[in-house]
Prior knowledge:
By secondary structure, the chain is of the alpha/beta class. 33% of the residues lie in helices and 22% in strands.
Amino acid sequence: MTPPRSLIVNADDLGRTVGINRGVIEAHEHGIVTSASLMVRWPAAPEAASSARGCLGLAVGLHLDFGEWIRRGDGWVARYEVVPTSADAALVREEVTRQVNRFRELMGRDPTHIDSHQHVHRSEPVRSVVLAVAAELGVHVRHFGAARYCGAFYGQDEKGLPLPDALGPEAAVRLLCELRPGLTELCCHPGYTDDLDSDYRAERPLEVRTLCSARVREALDELGIRLVSFASAGVSWSHGA
């Protein structure tokens, strides 16, 4: 018998701005978002945590923030940097611990999962530090656990050029049709952006609309895809790589 398809829809960047907070909560309360990843260093993080604590069905994990890099020409430059990703592992561990502790202060509990801004935890030395911390907490790490990662719901190409057609309801339905059996995490970035300084800005309200679309909800039912969260799916730490 073919295993059922289960889907975690995880919104990144919760806590970065008030507008992103509003978009994430809307996409949870009126759409298909089941989990979110909290950036704890930003001024809007306390408001995000307060709103998230009021959403009993929303699993909240930690979106580790080491900085942000933007494409300029053929290379990348830092918009801001918290700790260099090539720093000594002890410094990386110190920053990860600081952000885990801040998460606990804001949410009153441990994160349900861990990922990172711009996926910097996929490279050393951040990778080893994050996997060790996740093992201590017993939580899932994006790209390294039981949930298969899907980042195809994204409105830009590799050069940062816009792909608005990738964010419409029909594009989302095509992604759902292509889901393989088992557990998948679909990453998204909903938000409202009047207060956001980012190269990924115009796309976020489009994501909110699609994630709240009746057509997408209908497709989940038609395809027999079960919506779950990092909490309800019982996803815990495993080293899948």
